């Protein structure tokens, strides 16, 4: 895998060599969200007000050999640099595909739960779920083909030299992840079903390698994650089902098996309502705990502003037997 990656990078470098960027564009965009969240149980007296904000700096241009270049840099709430991305399109021999150096998400984390929702996923305000996430946030090489061989299937794949190593290093620098993490990769396939209007399917797989020392006494040294989903829309109604499995090695191997269900209805162009449910079972050394979460959410959109409401509950929250949680949250978000 490493040799293949080196060959691919060499070909990309050759295709981009001895070129300059023509005049391009730079822009700043972002969003702001203020929320009021009231939780049940032991959290009834906690501070209910919250805020989240995101700022992205983007730029695009074209090399004098016709290759398109796009850059993106996001910031944290503290205005520190966060995810980085450099995307090339129109690269010779790649056709309509793009290739990127990025830590802005990953293929399998993008489809961890794609069941229809009006506002928030069932686990957004209660519980804590171990779902498919790959090496989200790690800088790697990503290949995306929106339409593979005219089939309408989107192929999204990513390779990491060391999973968990975080965002891009300083120029000519190196960084290392903890716990003996090694290379990893992810791949997802998504597309509509021919002759069945409104039906779409998707699947994803991730492998994250670990050193033998970090996974002593384990049957398998690697993390494995997989997911599959189906969504169907007819008119204003959308339904979806998904299953995700995570296997984590170690002295006590752990696995998580999660099922997601969702149904949403667009009451109007501005108003939507949904019901979502998650059942996630944790298995470790012959013991099993099932966490159940469900939520009702509503959203209303006006221009660049969205008002959202979610009412959620969880049993055996965070895989703790007998622990229950509930929450109601109202938020106002504005994009600019």
What descriptive keywords fit this protein?
336 residues; Porin; 53% strand
Per CATH, what is the topology?
Porin
The name of the CATH architecture is: Beta Barrel
CATH class type:
Mainly Beta
Helicity level:
under 10%
C-alpha Rg (nearest Å):
22 Å
What is the CATH homology-level superfamily?
Answer: Porin
- State the separation between the terminal residues, measured CA to CA: 41 Å
Low-confidence spans:
4-11
N-to-C SSE string, H for helix and E for strand: HEEEEEEEEEEEEEEEE
Q: Approximately what portion of the residues adopt beta-strand conformation? A: over 45%
What structural category arises from helix and sheet content? mainly beta
Q: What overall geometry do the principal axes of the alpha carbons give?
A: globular
Q: Number of DSSP helices? A: 1
Q: How many strand units?
A: 16
| Chain oligomer state | single chain
**Largest β sheet strand count, sense and barrel closure:** 16 strands, antiparallel, barrel
């Amino acid at each position: 895998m490493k040799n293949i990656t080196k060959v691919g990078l060499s070909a990309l470098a050759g295709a981009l060599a001895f070129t300059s960027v023509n005049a391009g564009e730079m822009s700043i965009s972002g969003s702001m969200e203020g929320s009021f969240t009231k939780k049940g149980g032991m959290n009834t007296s906690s501070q209910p007000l919250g805020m989240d904000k995101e700022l992205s700096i983007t730029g695009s241009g074209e090399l004098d050999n016709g290759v398109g270049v796009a850059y993106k840099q996001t910031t944290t709430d503290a205005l520190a640099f966060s995810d980085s991305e450099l995307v090339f399109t129109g690269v010779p021999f790649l056709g309509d595909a793009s290739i990127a150096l990025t830590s802005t998400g990953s293929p399998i984390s993008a489809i961890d739960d794609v069941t229809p929702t009006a506002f928030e996923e069932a686990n957004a305000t209660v519980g804590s779920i171990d779902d498919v996430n790959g090496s989200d946030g790690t800088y790697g090489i990503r290949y995306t083909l929106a339409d593979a061989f005219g089939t309408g299937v989107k192929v999204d794949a990513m390779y990491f030299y060391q999973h968990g190593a975080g965002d891009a290093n300083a120029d000519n620098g190196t960084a290392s992840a903890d716990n003996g993490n090694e290379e990893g990769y992810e791949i997802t396939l998504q597309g509509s079903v021919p002759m069945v209007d409104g039906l779409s399917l998707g699947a994803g797989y991730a492998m994250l390698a670990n050193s033998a020392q970090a996974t002593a006494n384990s049957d398998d040294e690697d993390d494995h994650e997989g997911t599959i989903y189906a969504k169907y829309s007819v008119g204003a109604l959308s339904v979806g089902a998904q299953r995700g499995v995570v296997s984590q090695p170690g002295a006590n191997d752990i696995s998580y098996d999660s099922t997601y269900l969702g149904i949403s209805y667009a009451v109007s162009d501005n108003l939507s309502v949904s019901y979502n449910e998650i059942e996630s079972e944790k298995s470790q050394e012959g013991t099993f705990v099932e966490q159940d979460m469900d939520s009702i959410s509503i959203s209303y959109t006006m221009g660049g502003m969205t008002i959202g409401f979610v009412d959620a509950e969880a049993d055996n929250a965070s895989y703790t037997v007998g622990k229950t949680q509930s929450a109601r949250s109202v938020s106002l978000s504005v994009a600019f």
